[in-house]
Amino acid sequence: MKQVKFILNLSQQEIKGTLERYHFSKSDLPVLCSFFLALKPLVNCQAFYEVIGSNQKRPRQLEFSEEKDFLAAIVTLGKSVDRLQEMYLEAQDVMAAYMVECLSLDLLNQAYEKLAKRIEEEEGMYIGRYEFLGGKYPLEKTKDIFDYFSQSEVTYNEAYMLIPQKSVVFLGNLTKEPNEACRHICACCQNKSCKNRIVVKKPEEKREFLPYGYQRILGKGQGWKED
Known about the structure:
With about 230 residues, the protein is of the alpha+beta class.
């Protein structure tokens, strides 16, 4: 298992992208920037990953993967991001919690890109497709992947919800062909009903973004605290 920490940051231009993506008004930009300043020092982004080549014997826990060459990974923004969001929810400030959620999602997207770049540099390979559990592979495979990775930063509960919340576990199909690299994480995701989904059109077309609802925040308001 390899482990790496990433320093993440959003420029003002990127925060403007967050503003547009999640349908805030233009007047919300200063507030969104101020929330990012509060969020940034709390982010502790870590990635735990392993590249399994077709010429390698597969670990028992990862035998379920149907990919020839693949990446198994766990990525997290750390516990403090959850705690900041909990603080706003306890204060019944749903808008603040929502802004933190949207900014966190964009930071996670940046972490995916950094990990993909690292795999390219280390292995000379590109992520051609992301496979998140609950799609091609059942959620129950979460246990197998966590059994393989000897780390304690990210855990999961009986419903396979990851803790911290701003964490992901996935497999990535690897290719040696640059033109087969996934252009954006949502472009090859099977979950068409995802409220975070970004619809990526052809390069010459303008990207369109589907709305992201408050229900994600309200639906997670219960049971966030770690016992």
